[in-house]
């Protein structure tokens, strides 16, 4: 099982004109590769696991046009509504006007721009760590960090619902991989207790889990890793901008300082990229050894400029975070009033799963909601474990109470219409 992967599980949509969905055995004789792949695609369709893209026209905002149809978006990770903020867009435009679009090379060759450096310094100051390093994507950050820091003879102890990029990076490192049942502190403790003193180990976890919306017990994990002489690596992409008094994420909420903090620019900051924060030694080592950073073209300077503006807004406009949390509580209260099954959490986050279970039914519900004008992603295996298909509803500071109430009514009615047989 590959748990916690944040993939697009959109409901099937018609193929674009001129691009019909491929069918096994169609047309001229298949190549050996196509002959191998086509039956697997057919199997995915038969099991309601086939994925299709939807096309967005215009702004990626709360109100948007998807496959030519206006709808309200309740499946994006734009928690603070910054992806379409005109100030963020203007910062990107200025950077393009000043320096063009591409960075033209990797950061160690010709691609390290003043905008990259400024963002790294401002983010490190915000998060309270000595240094930070900007990656092209969050996945590149996770892969680069884990492959650089771990190798044969080392041990990774990881939550089973970690994001797919954490799983892939840990396995690619060739360290021994110990998977712990979700949020099972006794499992972590047991795994750490079996370590030989000579072996280096790292506990790896999401801060906020991307498909469930719950928060890792970081203080307990920090205590366990310290006692065992291990390192704590936290991916908090869904906590940044959302949790904590200043929006620094689950590490601030839970007053925990991991050895390695990984964050993303594509959620609350509304941009793109990954960022790693830690000690001077850590960042210098990653510059020498993180292959996904060394051998990738640096992100466009305009992305770093936009992220700087998003970070400035995050720091100076706490009312956005307050509005987001008010929207989350509005959804939770409304869901309970309507008898909808949503998980109870000690701390509310913008990720609110509605558990369905059956793969075909979750996609039927997603399609029905889209028909009613609401875009809500249906999430199926392998993104989540088998039997746990769900509607993944995400809230933003840009949503209004009336829109949330309308979604809840549509969700209640759709569940009634598509009740299990």
Automatic annotation (TrEMBL):
InterPro entries, A to Z: Aminotransferase_I/II_large, AON_synthase_class-II, PyrdxlP-dep_Trfase, PyrdxlP-dep_Trfase_major, PyrdxlP-dep_Trfase_small
Keywords, comma-separated and alphabetical: Pyridoxal phosphate, Transferase
Annotated GO MF terms: 8-amino-7-oxononanoate synthase activity; pyridoxal phosphate binding
Domain of life according to the entry: Bacteria
Aminotransferase class I/classII large domain: residues covered: 70-411
GO terms for biological process, alphabetical: biotin biosynthetic process
Cofactor: pyridoxal 5'-phosphate
Region (Disordered): 1-33
Pfam families (alphabetical): Aminotran_1_2 (PF00155)
Signal peptide: none
Protein name: Aminotransferase class I/classII large domain-containing protein
Source organism: Hydrocarboniphaga effusa AP103
